[in-house]
Amino acid sequence: MEEDKIARRNWWISPKLEGWITSCKNSIENVLQSRIHPRKSNP
Predict the structure, then answer these.
(1) Measured between alpha carbons, how far is 13 from 41 in angstroms, rounded to an integer?
(2) Which domain of life is it from (predicted)?
C-alpha cells in the first residue's frame, strides 16, 4: 500500500521534475562545454 502511494505521487511529480532536471542538465552541460571548448563559444 505504501509503495503504491509513493508511486502515484512520483507519477504526478515526475513530469515537473523531469523538465527541471533536463533544464539543469542542459545549463550544466553548456557551462562545461564553454569551459572545455572556449573557442567554440568565442570564435
Answers:
(1) 35
(2) Eukaryota
Distance CA 9, CA 11 (A): 5
Cβ atoms of residues 29 and 37 within 8 Å:
no
pTM for the model stands at 0.44
| Separation CA 28–CA 31 (nearest Å) | 5
What's the confidence (pLDDT) of residue 38? Answer: 64
Residues sharing a CB contact under 8 Å with residue 33, sequence separation 6 or more, in sequence order: 40, 41
Cα three-residue angle 34-17-28, rounded to 5 degrees: 10
